[in-house]
């Protein structure tokens, strides 16, 4: 005699229902995929999205890697950009995440350009960039508390203002100084100085950067009346107080004027403290008498 099931009568309707579903026509077979989809959707929103959000919503500052800064960059670029641009609120799942990260880093005064941003496994963000290079110090005279004093502002070869507080007094004195009468700027670091005469001198400072110590260049001065000369004219002063007339900034030479490369060769060949006009001088060139 068959043993009676110990299952309570109240559970039998559920069992019977499942049996009927299993034996249901093929048209009802779509019910199971639908249940799986709905179940997966609920599971994702309850647990999966939370897990992903923990790993990809908000960027961990420790997971940001950048191109190694040069030795003259003393500030913590990653911390500065992360703090000033609220990067912790940016999701790596954002389709514009890499563009926003590139824009954030490009605003730092030491960054000349961002060449690439990559999202790597584990929430790592790799940022490749080029840095600005200081080429000179612009001397500016200001009156503070009734006292007129001299201040120095570091710039790159495009006359972009660099962070002033990252240079010691001795380092400031080692750079070529740019002397432009009446020059001053209220622009922020990372912005152009804002004076075409300073920009002209910065062009020359960049050309002189590899050799200025060897040649003994101490200062670049803008000379002449700017109302009468469209292109600023420059002079270079050496350690022995000799002033040589350079002429137009590199790349802006007037017709018949010697190129920056020719002027530089002549300048490096100068001996003694006799001033020369580098625009036309040939006697100082190697191989010339």
Automatic annotation (TrEMBL):
The chain crosses the membrane at residues 21-44. One of its GO terms (biological process) is cell division. The gene is ftsQ. This is Cell division protein FtsQ. It comes from Rubripirellula lacrimiformis. Keywords: Cell cycle, Cell division, Membrane, Transmembrane, Transmembrane helix.
